[in-house]
Design a protein that fits this description.
The chain is built from 13 helices and 19 strands. With 466 residues, the protein is α/β, with parallel strands linked by helices. The longest helix has 24 residues.
């Protein structure tokens, strides 16, 4: 590897520098050598990042669980797509979501509300509906992502970002569909994910200080973000060294690619009165089984890829250090036609034996998506190395088994070293440990020492992470 070639301007570039252009566009930058001298970075230590990747309806345990010892293990068929990242993984078996059993009129509602909060489901004023679904319920406390954002979010443009992939449309009936909650114990409110990649893109790059007329004018002209800030971009390139110029060029190429993909994708909603959005193709690749348009808002896989690309870009630009990505929701009714599945996901999960082959394919498909995200985070770098090395990326499922709705013996995967806080390359079997303890340990890892998280009856921390 060639030696780092960089130059530091007489006054270092601010870490949160935005290149501003016409029409309210603000372009965030990746980390550049010119932003901070190496000695200062070494003294401070690099930032940690936290990402949650959610998929639903449990798994097929004997096809998910690795074999072998803690440090010498073979990935299972479902987790095989993660083979290239095995040294970056901490596979956690045996964690229990005990808070989900405190109040469970419906197991899916209880598991979704408690997934990241480890606090009980709370019934709302409308009570329950068919099958015990809680119509407007919430969680009794905040979620781990929002608590980490409370600790570290002040250092970035956005404290956190919540992304979704058809997170509200792929359900059969009203129920609890959120996993992120902000507030205090006893007073938490859900934080909805944004399902539209175009809106996520605009949140990252449209300057909120611009007037609405300027923003509309920018959109009506269909100008590229890069075109709008081209002069500032060229001026910055002239000031930095060769490695920084290479980073800027890669950054620009990524943004161009995202812009083009989002133009093709469409979201199914009007972004504003002008211009008219692209025509939406109700792609039949991944729809709910009944095929209703409300349940088929675009291509599930393409939407998810766009969201993962934006997630990586947001971390690379240090726009935020806390992001959640919610694929569908608990009781997901996504119909994976691209996998030749014979029915929608939730329905098949209730007969795991009869639908074993299809459920293995679906869970393997999610492992492939997770691998894509890890690939992206490993490719993108900051001053200290790959983003994955400074991140804690948690792949969580609300159930361990969809047939029985079991929330004990969960199979969760953590990736990334968290700047040395996580000892990876291991498969760990926990016994009688709770998600509360995992989240308490994560709070300590992110700078807020804690002896408990969520419901107070489940105290303690989780050993064996570092």
């Amino acid at each position: 590897m060639p030696k780092s070639v960089f130059c530091i301007p007489s006054k270092p570039i601010a870490r949160r520098t935005l290149l501003r252009g016409v029409g309210g566009v603000a372009l965030a930058l990746p980390f550049l050598e010119a932003m901070q001298p190496r000695a200062a970075r070494a003294a401070e230590g690099g930032p940690k990042r936290f990402v949650v990747f959610f998929s639903a309806n449990g798994t097929i345990k004997d096809q998910w669980q690795p074999t072998g010892t803690e440090t010498d293990f073979t990935l299972s068929p479902i987790l095989a797509p993660l083979a290239a990242h095995q040294k970056d993984l901490l596979i956690m078996r045996g964690l229990n979501n005990e808070a989900s059993y405190i109040y469970e009129p419906n197991a899916h509602d209880a598991s979704m509300a408690t997934l990241l909060t480890a606090s009980k489901l709370v019934k709302g004023p409308s009570g329950t509906g068919r099958a015990g679904h809680v119509l407007d319920g919430t969680a009794a406390g905040p979620s781990i992502d929002q608590e980490i954002a409370r600790v570290i979010g002040g250092a970035t443009q956005l404290p956190s970002m919540e992304l979704g992939v058809q997170s509200t449309t792929t359900i059969l009936e009203p129920m609890v569909v959120r996993m992120c909650y902000r507030g205090t114990q006893g007073n938490a409110k859900s934080v909805p994910p944004e399902d539209d990649p175009k809106k996520v893109f605009n949140r990252l790059f449209m300057d909120s200080g611009a007037s609405s007329d300027e923003i509309l004018a920018q959109k009506s002209q269909r100008k590229s973000v890069l075109d709008a800030v081209l002069r500032d971009f060229q001026r910055l390139e002239a000031k930095v060294g060769s490695l920084d110029r290479q980073k800027l060029e890669r950054h620009a190429a990524t943004i161009r690619e995202l812009e083009l993909s989002l133009e093709k994708l469409g979201s199914g909603e009007r972004q504003c009165t002008v211009p008219a959005p692209p025509e939406v193709s109700l792609n039949p690749v991944d729809c709910t089984q009944d095929g209703r348009p409300a349940k088929c808002a675009g291509d599930f896989q393409a939407l998810g890829k766009a969201q993962m690309d934006l997630l990586t870009l947001a971390l690379a630009c240090d726009a935020t250090r806390v992001i959640t990505l919610q694929w569908s929701t608990a009781e997901s009714t996504v119909f994976h036609k691209s996998l030749q599945a014979k029915a929608e996901h939730h329905l098949m999960s209730h007969d795991a034996k009869g639908n074993r082959a299809d459920l293995i394919k679906i869970n393997t498909w999610y492992a492939e998506r997770f691998a894509y995200l890890l690939d992206s985070l490993k490719t993108q770098t900051d001053a200290d190395g790959p983003l994955l090395d400074s991140s804690v990326v948690l792949w969580a499922n609300e159930l361990s088994d969809g047939d029985t709705h079991n929330r004990r013996d969960l199979g969760w995967v953590m990736a990334g070293k968290g700047n040395g806080a996580i000892n990876t390359g291991r498969s760990v079997q926990y016994r009688n440990n709770t998600t509360n303890q995992l989240f308490a340990s994560l709070m300590t890892m992110f700078g807020a020492p804690s002896e408990g998280f969520g419901d107070p009856q489940f105290k303690g921390t989780l050993s064996g992470l570092g």
